[in-house]
Design brief:
The complex is a heterodimer of chains A (310) and B (276).
Chain A lengths: L1 H21 L10 H21 L17 H8 L1 H32 L6 H9 L6 H12 L5 H8 L14 H26 L3 H9 L4 H12 L1 H16 L3 H6 L11 H11 L3 H28 L6
Helix pairs in contact in A: 4-8, 4-11, 8-11, 11-14, 13-14
Chain B lengths: L1 H33 L19 H9 L2 H32 L3 H13 L8 H10 L6 H27 L2 H9 L4 H12 L1 H17 L2 H6 L8 H11 L4 H21 L1 H14 L1
Helix pairs in contact in B: 1-12, 2-12, 3-6, 3-9, 3-11, 4-6, 6-9, 7-8, 9-13, 11-12
Classes of the chains: A mainly alpha (310), B mainly alpha (276).
Amino acid sequence: MSELVRKAHQTVAGGRQASLKKKGSVSLWWMYLPALIVVSIFIIYPFFKGIQVSFTDWNGFSQTKNWVGFEQYTRMFQDPDTWLVVKNTLLYGIGSTVLQNVIGLLYALLLNQSIKMKALTRTVVYLPVIISPLVMGYIWYFFFAYQNGALNDVLLWFGLDQINALGNPDLNPWIIVFVNTYQFVGIAMIIYLAGLQGISKDYYEAANIDGASAWQQFKNITLPLLMPAVTINMVLNIIGGLKLFDVIVALTGGGPGNASQSMSTFMYALYFNRQDAGYAATQGVLMAFIILVLSLLALIYFKRREVDAS
Amino acid sequence: MRNQEKRKKTFWTVLAVVISALHLIPFYILLTTAFKANNDFSSKWVLPSQLEWANFIEAWEKASLGTAFMNTMIITAGAAILLILFGSLAAYPLARLQTKLNKFIYFLFIGIMIIPPLTALVPLYQLVVDIGMMNTRTVAILNNLAAFLPLTIFLYAGFIRSTVPKELEEAAKMDGAGTLETFFKVVFPLLKPITATVLIISCVFIWNDYQFAIFFLQDKEVQTLTVALSSFFGQNQGSMNLVASAALMSMLPMTALFLFLQKYFIAGLSSGSVKG
């Protein structure tokens, strides 16, 4: 920390002289110092410290810890739970990203037309975004619960068997994807709506004169010009989905066993329930790595497909 | 042709209504559950025969929602005020003065956005224990502040670059105003629209925060709404009606804020994201 600040001072001193000569102004570094200090203490320092802890066998509370080299990493790659949890995390991340974008875009296309009930639908679809994901998880728990759940009542009315949806390891990761999508599809919808409203009507008029079909217009005009919105949505949703925590705690607690655990909830369990802090830190490093790689890949992939709309 | 157009519009309108209805199902289930007596085992789809207001009083007391509301409000307000202050101050030089150092610092703040807060959980927890801040509202304020500072700085810097004219500041400087004076008297008032956006987004996220709160606020006296709710849920598996009433109460303030300030929510989200 202090090292960082001292370096900042030195650089500022150097930069100040140079810029004084050139532009007659300074870096005004003291203005971002408060923000920099808070972020350094609560994010940057713990992040690097976490990498260090991942090379130890620390239990989370004792005063001593042993340096074990790459042992935790070997253990992680051999642990079948790791792969289950990574698989779930990818499902939560990619599954809800795909669903939120497809449904969000369809909703935006619908609400971009001059129809009645537009404002109301927008409000209703967006409403869950502002509710705590934990509360949203509980609300859907009332829906999916085995005992007296709303879903099972419907199944009974149709003469079908009741299902224990949240207790079924093949089904409950998908329910988590569904709930996450339901909650945040409103963000994708709003961003797509804003993007659609930014596309000039002239393009469509020209296309109509040329006799282009609705699908051709969508494929050749709407979608290419919407790519900046696609990029933002993809990156936002991937990061959000890969970090999923609250909804899982509320709906399944990660169970049965580890069946619906994400990397976030798994880490929590390793640290607080199993006193396996070193290993939890190792899982944290893997999670940071996966999020970093996937969000950068999404960013690069979709940025390349953007065209200049102006 | 005209008729066909009309029929199409009717179809789209009906579709919008169906979508709204489907999206409202969870809220409907929440309401019927929250208002039913605990010995009422009728289907959650059926409206309650009478409204059980006593649920709300019982849940309020049993889950200590009074304390939880207070804590959540203090943490949300504290973090939001500091976010606006620290965030706008930091964004100003980063947006205005493109020195090498400033470029690096800006990049650093943006890069931090990718670090998932939970990956650093283990050392962060230890750090909080070491500095004696476990179970304090201060640590919740600081954690939320750190988590949302990068996004705040990003939004402020973008806004300053694109909409605040440099000439105003230069004029103020000519009049002999110091940097800080110029900032608070000339620049900050112009940042109102983006401040509204930052305020709304951060209040919602901090109010709803569970990830930080569950680690650092275990004591009953400092519990936020989400932590109080999750422990209430754990202890009351047999009385979901009470859990539902507690959940309903906990989400009311943000729901009301959203319904009243809806256009700011939506304008903020669209401007902040599509430009970026």
